[in-house]
């Protein structure tokens, strides 16, 4: 990088603040975050009251994660690109190391005894790492603090791949093999958890950034058919994944009662909503009929309470938020800014449409949460960090 460019990128709009972020982008982000907390309280209040003696437990936990996420948002919002380049490899290395730990746990530990104390077995797989596992002291209000490395990997991949593609393109070098190694390694480690939906998401994020970099697409096009066949083979090689596919095709006759039940309860929720919905707070499926009611399935509660019209409005609002992200990428004054903004927006967009598609039976259930709205700390915190970087780019554009 030339001295002139380095000076321009590091000092450009050095005094920018929140007021410089695209106003509609910021308003939509705040609205989605508030809506998410309200819907989590709405969906979990009954269960929380019965199980914990207070209706606000899950909503307050989400507010706690939101506070941590907003700190991360501000950190990446104020981060200059020179510092981002310097820390990109470290972030990616930490992400890979945490994924390797989980991969080894899944290969050698198993779930017979509940897993390792720092890598618990949840739903038959190791996908979490605990920061303060027992017998270490718990964190006030939050208890045992854990995170999903696959969520951190999304942020780390966007940053590191963006920095590498920017460097290779500016030096007039071909970045294809760098793209394959970085994206392929990350996706394979996530696939070993096993987590096929997130592995596919990581590949799509990398693909969008590679496309925006302007590099030759010819070698990538040649690679897509064998990758597609490998994906099909991976799905069919597992009894569990085959069961999910068969349940999607015919939930009523599925041998997997839990998956078939989940799909039927989603259909009941969306069908009960009709055109205008049952009304806010009037969901019947939240009375412990619908699994993952505040997490992956929260879209079904939105459909039940707000109906087809309300759900359509929600989809339009979120789609406009995604559109603003891609417009910020288009308007970026630097290649690195365009790459980062594209990767972050693709990350949020694909997660959103995959969740909605799974809830409406366009694709099999994936376990992908609804970004910014679903209950869950890892997804919310790392999404807000990425969106802080997008806000950074927005302020630079202004």
Automatic annotation (TrEMBL):
Keywords: Cell shape, Glycosyltransferase, Membrane, Peptidoglycan synthesis, Transferase, Transmembrane, Transmembrane helix. One of its GO terms (molecular function) is lipid-linked peptidoglycan transporter activity. It is found in: Membrane. It is an enzyme of class 2 (transferase). InterPro entries: Cell_cycle_FtsW-rel_CS, FtsW/RodA. It is a multi-pass membrane protein. GO terms for biological process: cell division; peptidoglycan biosynthetic process; regulation of cell shape. It comes from the Bacteria. This is Probable peptidoglycan glycosyltransferase FtsW. Its EC number is 2.4.99.28. It catalyses: [GlcNAc-(1->4)-Mur2Ac(oyl-L-Ala-gamma-D-Glu-L-Lys-D-Ala-D-Ala)](n)-di-trans,octa-cis-undecaprenyl diphosphate + beta-D-GlcNAc-(1->4)-Mur2Ac(oyl-L-Ala-gamma-D-Glu-L-Lys-D-Ala-D-Ala)-di-trans,octa-cis-undecaprenyl diphosphate = [GlcNAc-(1->4)-Mur2Ac(oyl-L-Ala-gamma-D-Glu-L-Lys-D-Ala-D-Ala)](n+1)-di-trans,octa-cis-undecaprenyl diphosphate + di-trans,octa-cis-undecaprenyl diphosphate + H(+). Belongs to the SEDS family. FtsW subfamily. Pfam families: FTSW_RODA_SPOVE. One of its GO terms (cellular component) is cell division site. It comes from candidate division WWE3 bacterium RIFCSPHIGHO2_01_FULL_42_13. The chain crosses the membrane at residues 21-43, 55-77, 89-119, 176-205, 298-323, 335-354, 374-393.
């Amino acid at each position: 990088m030339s001295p002139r460019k380095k000076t321009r990128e590091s000092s450009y709009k050095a005094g920018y603040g929140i007021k410089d972020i695209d106003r509609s982008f910021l308003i939509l982000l705040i609205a989605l975050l508030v809506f998410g907390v309200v819907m989590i309280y709405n969906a979990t209040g009954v269960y929380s009251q019965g199980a914990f003696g207070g209706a606000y437990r899950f909503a307050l936990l989400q507010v706690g994660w939101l506070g941590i996420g907003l700190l991360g948002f501000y950190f990446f919002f104020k981060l200059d690109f020179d510092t981002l380049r310097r820390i990109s490899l470290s972030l990616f290395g930490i992400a890979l190391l945490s994924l390797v730990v989980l991969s080894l746990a899944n290969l050698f530990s198993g779930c017979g005894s509940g897993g390792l104390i720092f890598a618990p077995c949840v739903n038959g797989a190791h996908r979490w790492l605990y920061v303060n596992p027992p017998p270490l002291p718990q964190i006030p209000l939050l208890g045992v603090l854990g995170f999903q490395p696959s969520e951190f990997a999304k942020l780390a991949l966007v940053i590191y791949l963006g920095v590498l593609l920017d460097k290779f393109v500016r030096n007039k070098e071909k970045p294809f093999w760098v793209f394959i190694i970085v994206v392929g390694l990350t996706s394979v480690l996530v696939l070993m958890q096993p987590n096929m939906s997130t592995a596919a998401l990581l590949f799509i994020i990398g693909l969008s950034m590679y496309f925006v970099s302007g590099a030759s697409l010819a070698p990538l096009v040649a690679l897509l058919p064998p990758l597609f066949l490998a994906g099909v083979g991976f799905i069919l090689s597992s009894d569990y994944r085959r069961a999910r596919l068969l349940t999607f095709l015919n939930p009523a006759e599925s041998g997997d009662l839990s998956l078939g039940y989940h799909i039927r309860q989603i259909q009941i929720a969306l069908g009960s909503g009709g055109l205008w919905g049952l009304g806010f707070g009037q969901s019947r499926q939240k009375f412990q009929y619908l699994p993952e009611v505040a997490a992956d399935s929260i879209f079904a509660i939105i459909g039940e309470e707000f109906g087809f019209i309300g759900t359509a409005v929600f989809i339009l609002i979120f789609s406009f938020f995604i559109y603003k992200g891609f417009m910020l990428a288009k308007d970026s004054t630097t290649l690195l800014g365009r790459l980062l903004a594209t990767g972050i927006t693709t990350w949020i967009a694909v997660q959103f449409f995959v969740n909605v598609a799974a809830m409406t039976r366009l694709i099999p259930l994936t376990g992908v949460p609804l970004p910014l709205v679903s209950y869950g700390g890892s997804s919310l915190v790392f999404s807000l960090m990425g969106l802080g970087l997008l806000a950074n780019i927005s302020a630079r554009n202004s």
